[in-house]
Design brief:
heterodimer; A: about 250 residues; 11 helices; about 75% helix; globular; B: about 250 residues; alpha/beta; Rossmann fold; six-stranded mixed beta sheet; three-stranded antiparallel beta sheet; about 35% helix
């Protein structure tokens, strides 16, 4: 017998994949390409494609793609009865959550790939001076982007267990802005605090972002990547805990 | 209480409900006691109807039996000896919901295939047979959102029975069905009963309960007021009994 996670994963792809996600992904890809062209207009020496991609992915494409696929991630299934239909089968809650998260991550990976390809496709037409392409750094940027997307999706899944509709994204955005401001304020006063370093990872996890930023030819950011993995694992645990706590059948309410 | 007597030799207990109580908002100033000390057993192969007025506690009881809602401490529910939330229990049950799931992207056949896949059942021909017997063959490739309410209810009924579970829960199974479909469903339930499938269903349609069920449970104000065998009752007497219990309980 096949694993319930695999069966649900395939069902999620069939259920979620359609014209709207395809259009959404290509619109975000096109926006990334246009942004890259606009960034290239400003004359500032040879263009570093990987650094530009890093900026575009982390600041622009990944948040947009994650919002696109992470809005109402769990709550929608609770309120339309899908979750009840699934969990009355021989399926555990963590099977469903794993399939839901991994399928969303799969869509996000497709979105990131399209965004990267869209940016790269503009290069032959721009006739600019480019810095040497660092393949290793490129791979690190892509893996980091996917890792950070996974952290965002885990947070959105957790929030969506408790909040309906767009609220999970609204809270995440508010949290991101508030957490950033708070961190800036506190770090200006207690910049050498070890506790603050850990608290920052708790307030807003950014291990993968830091890892990609710190990467260079001479330095592979192992500790930053481990922080990223810790972020992802920690939030996954919180998402599983939330999933096990929620009332899955609201059809009678 | 007129407790129905059913021979239990060689018949497994499909549902064992002991001391089921449920209080909503227990720590608030005005807690709502939805169920109070419900006790009953349902044997394998029985068809048991659950009736009562709106707000009586039928839905709460159904949710607890399905493992969708935890009862208060001290309550105990077993489905063929298993906890209702366990994988073992879920592998033995089917549930017909109230046809509210109406996805634009999930097609009828894919929805039913998912049920088979999750149950580990490789019976593709069974889906066709069920679709045919519920006159839904032409709708197999349509999304659930494109179906009428009655057709969605039929899909939910197929979903419940598709993998031949030992116990099926039906929630108002004929609410959106036309008369010919209701007749077909009665015959369908009679055939499933012969196969030994147990059915527990809640309904407001007393005629339907009389014609289909072996036993009927009457619930009001969260209490189980009666547990009657239908064999001992004359046709049409359920309505009189229903009125009698309503009068006794003040509603």
């Amino acid at each position: 017998m096949k694993s319930p996670v695999w069966i649900l994963f395939k069902a999620e792809f069939k259920r979620r994949w359609g014209l709207i996600p395809i259009i959404g992904i290509f619109v975000i890809g096109a926006m990334a390409a246009i942004s890259f062209i606009l960034m290239s207009i400003i004359p500032r020496g040879p263009i570093d494609i990987v650094k530009s991609l890093q900026f575009l992915l982390f600041v622009f494409s990944v948040p947009l793609i994650v919002i696109f696929f992470g809005t109402d991630l769990i709550a929608a299934d609770i309120y339309d009865g899908w979750l009840r239909s699934i969990l009355l089968q021989p399926v555990k809650r963590h099977h469903y959550l794993s399939a839901r998260l991994f399928s969303s991550l799969g869509f996000t990976a497709v979105g990131i790939t399209i965004a990267v390809l869209s940016v790269l496709a503009t290069i032959p037409f721009q006739h600019k001076l480019y810095a040497p392409f660092d393949t290793e750094e490129f791979v690190v940027v892509c893996i980091g982007a996917l890792g950070q997307a996974y952290v965002y999706l885990s947070i959105l899944a957790t929030l969506s267990c408790w909040l309906k509709g767009f609220m999970n994204v609204a809270v995440l955005v508010g949290w991101w802005i508030g957490g950033g401001l708070l961190y800036q304020y506190v770090s200006s006063k207690y910049w050498d605090s070890a506790v603050l370093t850990i608290a920052k990872e708790f307030i807003f996890p950014s291990g993968f972002v830091d890892a990609v930023s710190a990467f260079s030819v001479d330095y592979f950011p192992v500790s930053e990547f481990l922080w990223g993995i810790a972020n992802a694992t920690g939030w996954l645990a919180v998402a599983y805990w939330s999933m096990n706590k929620i009332q899955i059948d609201r059809s009678f309410e | 209480m007129n407790r129905a007597t059913i021979p239990s030799n060689n018949r497994s207990v499909a549902i064992a409900a002991r001391s089921i109580s449920k209080t909503y908002s227990p720590s608030s100033k005005s807690p709502v006691q939805a169920l109070q000390n419900i006790n009953f057993e349902m044997l394998g192969g029985e068809i048991v109807g659950l009736i009562g007025p709106n707000g009586a506690g039928k839905s709460t009881l159904m949710r607890i039996l399905l493992g969708l809602l935890p009862p208060d401490g001290g309550s105990d529910v077993r489905i063929f000896g298993h906890h209702p939330e366990s994988i073992e229990s879920r592998a033995l049950i089917g549930y017909q919901a109230d046809s509210q799931f109406r996805s634009k992207t999930v097609r009828v056949r894919n929805f039913l295939q998912l049920r088979c896949d999750l149950a580990g059942s490789d019976r593709r021909e069974t889906i066709d047979e069920f679709l045919n017997s519920f006159t839904l063959t032409d709708a197999a490739s349509r999304p659930l959102s494109a179906l009428s309410k009655g057709m969605r209810q039929k899909v939910e009924l197929i979903f419940a029975f598709l993998t031949f579970p030992k116990l099926v829960f039906l929630d108002e199974p004929t609410a959106s069905l036309d008369p010919p479909s209701v007749f077909e469903l009665r015959e369908f339930l009679a055939r499933r009963k012969k196969e030994g499938i147990s059915v527990f269903f809640s309904s407001h349609n007393l005629t339907e309960v009389e014609q289909v069920c072996d036993r009927v449970l009457f619930i009001n104000h969260g209490r189980l007021l009666a547990d009657h065998s239908m064999q001992a009752m004359k046709l049409g007497s359920l309505e009189k009994l229903f009125k009698k219990y309503l009068l006794e309980t003040g509603k």
